Amino acid sequence: MSEWVDACAVDDVEEEDLIRFDHDGKTFAIYRSPDDDFFATDGICTHEHALLADGLVMDYIIECPKHNGRFDYRTGEAKGAPVCVNLKTYPVKVEDGRVFIDVG
Amino acid sequence: MAKRDYSLIGPNASRAVETGLASAEWYHTDISRKEMKALMKRSDGPAIRDTIIWLGGMAVFAGAAAWLWPSLWSIPLFLAYGVLYGSAGDSRWHECGHGTAFKTRWMNDAVYQIASFTMMRNPVTWRWSHARHHTDTIIVGRDPEIVAMRPPDLLRLALNFFGILDVWHAVIDMARNAAGIISAEEKTFVPEQEQPKAIFVARIWVAIYAATAAVAVYTGSILPFLLIGGPRLYGAWHHVMTGLLQHGGLAEDVTDHRLNSRTVHMNPVSRFIYWNMNYHVEHHMFPMVPYHALPKLHEMIKHDLPAPNTSILDGYREMFPAFLRQLRYEDYFIKRELPPTAKPYRAEFHDVAPQAAE
Q1: Which domains are assigned to chain A?
Q2: ipTM exceeds 0.90
C-alpha cells in the first residue's frame, strides 16, 4: 500500500549527490542524478552498517564510504564485491519543488 | 598469562562480537560534506601516469636484467625490478582493491588483478580480508591482516623482509584453493557465492607458475623464476618496511584510528612505491579518498591527529623499542600525544582493551 512521504525540497540535494532522510525509525537515501532525476533507496549499505549518505555518487552509482561497495541507485543492483545484496529502492515523485518517496 | 589468540575462529572472535568491538562505529575527524566530496572526487590522470611508470619501469628493468643475465651487472636491475614487482605491487593491489585509484572501473580492476598476481594474493580472498581489516582494524580475533601480533615474532617479521614466510603461505593457500578447498578462516569473511571465484583464480595462477617452471626446466635456467614469482621474495623488503609502520607497536581493540594507525612522512621515492599509504590514519578514517588526495586530506585534519613520524627511520625508532618491550610485556603499546587542537581519544571500549604503558 502506498504511503507517500515528503522527504525534502528539490534544492536540498545537489546534482550528482544524495542526502539522508529518516522516517519512522528507518534511514533512506535520496539521490539527484546528473540528469536531474530523483531516486530513493535504503540508506544503509547491505554489506555492513554504513550510511550511504556519506558515500560518493558517480553518474548512477553510489559508492559506500566504508568498503567502497557500489550500487546502481536507480535499480538498487549491487555491482560487485564487497556488496552482494541489492539495495531496496522506493518510488519517487516531485511535486511543487518537493521530493516525495513511497515508503509503503 | 595466556597468549593472545589472533585466530578468527577462536574465543577472541566471539569476545569481540560480544563486547561490541566488531563492526563498531569508529571515530572520525569532522570534515564538511562539501570538502569530503572534493577529496573523494575520482580521476584517471594520476594513476595512469603512475601505472605507466610502474609497468614501464618493470618492463625496462626486467628486459635489461634478462639481457645482461647471468652477468653480475644484472643484479641491480633485478633489484629495481623486484621492488616494483614485490613492493609497489602491494600498494597497487591495495588502492585498486578499494577502487579509488582510477575513475574508470576497468582500469582499477585490471591493475588490481596484475598486482594481486605479483603479490601472490588471491584477488577474491584478499578483497574480502581487506574489507574486514577496515571494518575491524586491529581488533584481535576479527582482523585477518594484523602483521605484528603480540608478542611480536621478530624472526617471522625479519624473514618476511624477503617474503619467505609470506610466499610459503601464499603457495600453500594457492594450492589449497586450486584444489577447491576454502579454509575455515577464509569462510568467515569470504561469502559463499564468492568462493568459486577464488578457486578459479587460484587454478589460473597454478597454470602460470607451472608454465614458468616448464620454461625453467626446458632452458635449464632459473631466469624465468627471477622474472616471475622470485621478485616477490627479493623485492618484498620495501613493502614490509613501510607496511610494518602502519600499525606496529600501536593499540589493539580500540575504535579510534588515531590510536592504532601511524602516519609517517616519507621520501618521494618511497611515497611513489607506497602510493601515499604513509598517510595511514587518514586512509583508515576516510578510505574513499584516493591516494593522490591524501596529502591534502592530511593538511586538512592534522590538527586532530597525533604528530606524524618525520621519516621511516623515525618511525622505526618509535616502533622497534615497543616491539622489544612487548616481548616482555605483551600489554605494552605506544599511545601518542594528541595536539591541543585535537578532540580526545575515544574512550569507549578502552575498558576492555589492554592498558597503555605510557
Answers
A1: 4-102 (2.102.10.10)
A2: no
